């Protein structure tokens, strides 16, 4: 790793906030994705998606409500279709619904239930529910605006574990252009800037589909090429991010970061949180996020785990870190994010990390929104009482979701369910 940059400024956001109602507090260990936030209408609206299905658009300056509506499932993802002036919401629940809403009025424009393809839950628990895990919008190489989404469902029968998944391309009116089905678990999508390639990262491969990355033609859905870290077990890819003709991949298989060229040719790889022995414990952490832009690549790692036990006495030295590299794979800078990052937000020159709890340490000071200059690594922090679980950034404005948390060993509930909005300038 490069030398850590120590240029953090604290409490720089001066957030405006609005409560989002009630939600069960998170616990010491991480809960699933329960909230999302995004921007719409050329940055004039900030939109929140909540676990009870409520979707609300607010004026970005006053935070006054423009409209609010109910999504059929838990609303856990947001994307914007700017040319069509619509918001696309991804769901987790009985139907696994993707739906589009008018950005000005909130009126539903179309709906698609992914359970029709991936199947219905065989158990009434969250992990088994159909889940639209990723949603990406953009234009293909012919200039057609599209919605791309990946849905998955898990089931287990004794020792037999299965995933069912479908990747979709929708027209703005909700018509399906194509689908791509596998028996693996997708975790990430990215569309390149020219609309010529759509990358799908698969986290778990238990069946016939045995590759962590597939690249599809965004117009037809045809398979272009595949890549895999070539590791044993079912863990494969954590995230994918295009930069020109290159694609950055975080590998759950070997806990490294990769930069690939056309066809999957490996340009370089770096150790991120590979297996490391400390006082007899074999420790590792997953690289969960990747972001590439303008010849730079950043990776973010997650929690410490041990090879042979659930609990650990020590922590991996590179857990909960963000590390940036240049086009040749040489280190630029690295820094702590301190808590678990559910999702990384970026606007080109800045990275925004919503940081939740560190369950190995249970330190409330890890609860924060942290942001970094992509080139220099200079950072700033807005500490929260609760945990930050989602963030979005656009034109220097950051929006984040705070959720309450109650650690199992102190009985105190910290923070609230709220939207926080502030300026990075």
Spatial extent as radius of gyration: 20 Å
Low-confidence stretches: 3-8
Strand arrangement, major sheet: 1-31-30-29-28
Q: The CATH topology, please?
A: Methylamine Dehydrogenase, Chain H
CATH level 1 name: Mainly Beta
Mean pLDDT: 95
Number of helices: 1
The CATH fourth-level homologous superfamily:
YVTN repeat-like/Quinoprotein amine dehydrogenase
Termini, distance in Å? 29 Å
Q: How many structural domains does the protein architecture include?
A: 1
**Class by SSE composition:** mainly beta
Helix content percent band: under 10%
Structure write-up:
With 425 residues, this protein is mainly β. It has a single domain (9-423), classed as YVTN repeat-like/Quinoprotein amine dehydrogenase (Methylamine Dehydrogenase, Chain H), CATH 2.130.10.10. The chain contains 1 helix and 36 strands. It has one helix at residues 115-118, and strands at residues 9-10, 16-19, 36-40, 45-49, 54-59, 65-70, 74-81, 86-92, 97-102, 108-113, 131-139, 145-157, 160-170, 176-182, 184-191, 198-205, 213-216, 223-227, 237-243, 246-251, 256-260, 266-271, 276-278, 281-293, 296-306, 321-325, 331-336, 345-346, 350-355, 368-373, 379-383, 387-394, 397-403, 405-406, 413-414, 418-423.
Helix-strand blueprint:
Elements: E1 9-10, E2 16-19, E3 36-40, E4 45-49, E5 54-59, E6 65-70, E7 74-81, E8 86-92, E9 97-102, E10 108-113, H1 115-118, E11 131-139, E12 145-157, E13 160-170, E14 176-182, E15 184-191, E16 198-205, E17 213-216, E18 223-227, E19 237-243, E20 246-251, E21 256-260, E22 266-271, E23 276-278, E24 281-293, E25 296-306, E26 321-325, E27 331-336, E28 345-346, E29 350-355, E30 368-373, E31 379-383, E32 387-394, E33 397-403, E34 405-406, E35 413-414, E36 418-423
Parallel strand pairs: 1-31
Antiparallel strand pairs: 2-36, 3-4, 4-5, 5-6, 7-8, 8-9, 9-10, 11-12, 12-13, 13-14, 15-16, 16-17, 17-18, 19-20, 20-21, 21-22, 23-24, 24-25, 25-26, 26-27, 28-29, 29-30, 30-31, 32-33, 33-36, 34-35
